[in-house]
Amino acid sequence: MKKKSALSLRQILFLAAVLLAFGSLTLFLFQYKKDEKRFTNITSRLFTEEMTSSTLNMHYSIAHPSDFGIYDYDAVLPGYDADNTLKGQFALENTIAALRSVRAEKLNDSDAYLCKLLTRYLDNSMALGSFRYYSEPLAPSSGMQSQLPILLAEYTFRTRRDVEDYLSLLDQTDEYFASLLVYEQEKAAAGLSMPASSLKSVRKQCDTIVTSEALDSNSHFLQTTFAERLQPLLENGTITAADAQKYTDTNDRLLRTVLLPAYVALGDGLLLLEDPAVPLTGLAAKPQGKEYYEALLLSETGSYRPVSEVQELLTAQFTAEYEAIRSLLTQHPEAAKRYTQDEEIAFPLRDISQMLTDLQGRMKGSFPTISGEAVSVSVKPVSESLESYSAPAFYLTAPLDDTTQNVIYINQQKTPKGLELYTTLAHEGYPGHLYQTVYSNRRTLAEGERPAKELLWYGGYLEGWALYVEFLSYDYASALLQESNLGQDALLVQLEKHNRSLQLCLYSLLDIMIHYEDASYSRVAKVLEGFGIKDGSSAKAIYTYIAQEPCNYLKYYLGYLEILSLQNDARTLWGDTYTDYRFHSFYLDNGPADFLSLREQLEADDNAGRTAP
Predict the structure, then answer these.
(1) Residues 159-185: pLDDT tens digits?
(2) Which residues of 32-64 are buried (b: 16+ CB within 10 A; e: fewer)?
(3) Is the pLDDT of residue 403 over 80?
(4) pLDDT recorded at residue 342
(5) Nearest one of 393, 193, 159, 378 to 274, comparing CA atoms
(6) What is the DSSP letter of 384?
(7) Three-class DSSP labels, 514-569
(8) What b/e readout covers 538-556, taking b as 16+ CB neighbours within 10 angstroms?
(9) CA atoms within 13 A on the CB side of 405
(10) Which of 431, 443, 433 is nearest to 400 (CA)?
(11) Fewer CB within 10 Å, N or C, the chain?
(12) Using one digit for the tens of pLDDT, what is the confidence trace for 249-281?
């Protein structure tokens, strides 16, 4: 047997060094993986808890829960509960602390950025949550009394479980509205009651959104859309005819015995809260109104600018838009004459499908392409019972993992036509909400990004983008009219563009006046009169809407101005390599986000980007 040779001192020292190095590497990898695993656990738990706590939210966020590790859940329509609200704040505080304990430098770039976004987002949510009775879930123009029926009507049936979940949610609507009534009662007890005029408006909606007459005639949209959504499941064999009849009967029974009484009870409860002594005012008139407005402004827009700086930004833009209008009117007297006479623009496209096709063609080369399957869009009318309370148009956000079918609603009571319809479809469709949603969702899945990213919501990022591309569509429309030898109409389009921007800028300034400076109706009416709005009913409608919907105009217009500011920064940083394609790619690839984080991302990554193919 051959004798093993002994290790030399040199070999022993070398081996010791290798072992020491390996041990250090193992410790390093352990520490690295420790932060990565912690972040994975935090985001996975956060996403799962958020999804399973609200089935309605989950259904509109992800189409197939099992693909995201969610196999078992109860159908839940969460309402207001004072104890749960406090527990939620504590849980939020713990989640923020857990995120702060993660060392971002130990994460990959994507996770480090998401960690920063989530921490800031939850910080903002925590700050907003400290103002317990300042939010308004039953706002006349955007409350759940009008939003919930739309969400139920568009609740997609992909499986039998979806139908059963929907019916379970419908069966909980009485408890849901009852909980919101409790919240309103607690608000009133805290001295923060909704004004009588707003309560009357909400009560009117409760009386008309669901009626026994519509249900008895089987013509209510929650009956007709239910049958429409069952049909594909019946045709592909997922359910039988007997199943369909059973589900239909259950839906009708729940509409009559649960939802209709829920609206009646809510309306009756709100009637008892009406106090003529409570006036319609801005937030600044409330005890902590200014502080809440600051928190709401950040939460809604994602802008970290102080209110004074926002005012300066708006004032400068107002001046620029005013000068642009004055210059166009001076240089083109014929167009000025037509514009002042409010002549209709001879827009060459009338059909919605033609408009969408034209928009998609004109955006090519300036926006990144959507990958994967073809994208379809259905344009539907808003139900007549909701027309008075709905926006002129809106896009229902597609789930992360199902973006082939998309829906845009058009309010026929406020039906836009011609140029207005074209720019509306740009805002809601291409290159607006639909395009942004589909592109971002497909990219998130393709890049393997964490689904917790879907929890982030910044109105300024989303609505700012939609307004940004809406203004681009005015330029598309001008080009279309020039191609059709309608030069004068093309000039009118540019005047309309600047006038719309001026109007939104003015309303945003009024938002600050009303909610931060406690401007009265008379003061607002005087400002509006200075801009030619002398009709008292029009001035009252503007004041009422802004007073009831704080930060809503800013969500759009400040978001738009933040994008313009970010775009200017990109031009400076990128110099000759700047292209609209590269900027749009950067914006879409790094959201949803607040504008502070986007600006930091731009400065840290100024050499990254893409050029148009």
Answers:
(1) 999 999 999 999 999 999 999 999 999
(2) eeebeebbeebbeebbbeebbebbbbbbbbbbe
(3) yes
(4) 81
(5) 193
(6) G
(7) HHHCCCCHHHHHHHHHHCCCCCHHHHHHHHHHHHHCCCHHHHHHHHHHHHHHHHHH
(8) ebeebbbebbbbbbbbbbb
(9) 8
(10) 443
(11) N
(12) 999 999 999 999 999 999 999 999 999 999 999
pLDDT tens digit sequence for 306-332: 999 999 999 999 999 999 999 999 999
Number of Cβ atoms within 10 Å of the Cβ of 13? 11
Asked if 265 and 178 touch (Cβ cutoff 8 Å), the reply is yes
- In this structure, are residues 283 and 194 in contact, taking their beta carbons and an 8 Å threshold? no
Q: Say whether the peptide bond before residue 261 is cis (omega within 30 degrees of 0).
A: no
SS (H, E, C) 417-430: CHHHHHHHHHHHCC
Contact status, residue 455 vs residue 44, Cβ threshold 8 Å: no
CA dist list (Å): 439 to 111, 462, 589: 20, 13, 9
For residues 40 and 106, what is the distance between their CA atoms, to the nearest angstrom?
13
Q: Are the C-beta atoms of 208 and 220 separated by less than 8 Å?
A: no
- Tokens representing residue 384 in the block: 């007549």
Per-residue pLDDT reduced to its tens digit, 377-388 = 999 888 777 787
